[in-house]
Amino acid sequence: MLLHGDAPLAARYLAAAGLGRLLVTGDAPPLAARDPSFRLERATPGAAADVVLDLGDGAAWRKAAGVRMWGGALGGRVLLGVEPREGPPPAGAARAILETLAAGEALRALLGLAPRSHDFA
């Protein structure tokens, strides 16, 4: 799975869920995975992955093939699972909620379940 954007909370949830390999763009967050086979690797936005979760600028979402999700903010609303939109990234509690929902939806996609879209203020 590829995680694009500054999303240390989402990375922690994915590692804790038993994800075997997580590719991240930019700086890799420090993680303590329970599974010793867990691998955290640095990647580019276009790296091949089963699921691409873009909580950044949309670059990974645009380059991905297959299952892809984007999350961000637009007009005071937090969005997940839609095409990237222009707007500042959410901050504070809204960012934590976005990362938590995003990690859950990414796991759903990895399990073969259809990811859902979320839109909340």
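The above is record 1. Record 2 follows with the same two-line structure.
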Amino acid sequence: MREFSENLEICKYLEVPVLVIPADSVSPVEDKHYDEAISSLAEAVRLADRYGVKLAVEFLAKARFLGCLPTAAMLARKTGQKNVGILFDTFHFYCGISKIEDIDGIKGKEIFLVHLNDVAEKPREILTDKDRVLPGEGIIPLETIVKKLQNAGFSGYYSLELFNEELWNQDPFSAAKKCFENLEKLGENYES
């Protein structure tokens, strides 16, 4: 909690409104771990509130403990606090055990941030972060996902998150231009 408090202090100083918190790995996973996580998350949320920071729980595709959208929503809801929500990452959503229908059980206000990315055409079981590509250059059904998020009432920020070394090795201005163009094209397709 000391390190977490230091991170919150940095967020407050830099006026960062949301801190993303992925789950630690637990193996083997037992029911009691979720009760412990809810208790710990509630404590973290109360502390974050003192700094004026919201917390976004991130589910990770390969995680055994927090690997899907419904579990992230359940943990956030069971804290009983309003300043905790979900980081929705299209990569983790697509590559993990979440289903498109899971979005129907989420309210837009529960999602604090969306990481937008696409993936190369490979079997989902072997996809890794390095297989992320720019939106529109892969196979994730982004149109369906974004429309469902909008229908749920999400009107917050989308951010691009790629771990693509090919893009990193490009001239930064050219890479930024390409990223902007892809996102702009995506935005044109999904305007309400």
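Strands lie at 18-22, 54-58, 84-89, 111-116, 118-119, 132-133, 158-160.
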